Amino acid sequence: MREVADVPALKSWIGSARAAGRRIGFVPTMGALHEGHLTLVDEARRRSDAVVMSVFVNPLQFGPSEDFDRYPRDLERDRALAAGRGVDLLFVPSAATMYPPGADTRVVPGPAGERWEGAARPGHFAGVLTVVAKLLHLVEPDVACFGQKDIQQATLIRHMVRDLDLPVELAVLPTVREADGLALSSRNVYLEPAERHDALALSRGLRAARAAWQAGERSGPALEARIERELNAAEALRADYIAAIDPEQLERVGEAPAGTILAVAARVGRLRLIDNLILE
């Protein structure tokens, strides 16, 4: 695996790969890698000949009171995991490389970005879309892989690619979970044992609502109430939102056909966790 930190070196490597006729897959990350990220690498490998991964903790997507300074960082560990999974090029730019002085242009999402995570974290998705647009422009991948756990993010990136005619194929892979159902997240390392136990209410509530849907329940509010019962039983957990939403504009639905997303966000101790399921 080769590692580069500046744009000219990245472009040189990409140019050589293109000249050799290699199809490029891309996995953008903020590091603190786990099996969810590595599953994206596996998919990128299946769909391409050369895999590029970026590790960049993007300051634009953190609000002033959020955990940018505390976000887990372990580049040495990330290098080893990426190399072990077959990443060909690791791109580790600095903030100054990504946002040189005077770089004040932002990619702003439409109305779907103002709901749920967008309402809870103002400006978050403008930061996400801006960095993803820059990375797609720099890497020029044939396919880019994202995880379903950040379903609103993946939806907005899909909108951006469609609306701006970006020449890239997107692959969104199912959420990878621990054996007990907890969705993998880089922030899970900060959960205390009791908090981790209560955090299981998110996936438990989603599974309960899915079981109700599979048994014939089609009311969006009824499915939300089923999730809420599980979350209310967890002492350390405070729900931010529980929503049955359509997969395109992410608006709350009255009736929940196949494809409806069940999304939840909750605070557990100092952490804020998200999870979702797609009804199918």
Q: Can you identify the CATH class of the largest domain?
A: Alpha Beta
As a percent range, the share of strand residues is 15-25%
Number of strands: 9
Query: Sheet bearing the most strands, described?
Result: 6 strands, parallel
Measured as a percent range, the helix fraction is 25-40%
Q: Which features would summarize this protein structure in a list?
A:
single chain, 280 residues, alpha/beta, Pantoate--beta-alanine Ligase, Chain: A,domain 2, 2 domains, six-stranded parallel beta sheet, 9 helices, 39% helix, 19% strand
The gist of it:
The protein has 280 residues and is of the alpha/beta class. The protein is built from 9 helices and 9 strands.
List the helices and strands and how they pair.
Layout (H helix, E strand, L loop, with lengths): L1 E3 L2 H13 L4 E6 L5 H13 L2 E6 L19 H11 L3 E3 L3 H4 L18 H4 L3 H16 L3 E5 L3 H13 L5 E5 L19 H22 L5 H13 L4 E9 L15 E8 L2 E8 L2
Parallel strand pairs: 1-4, 2-3, 2-5, 3-4, 5-6
Antiparallel strand pairs: 7-8, 8-9
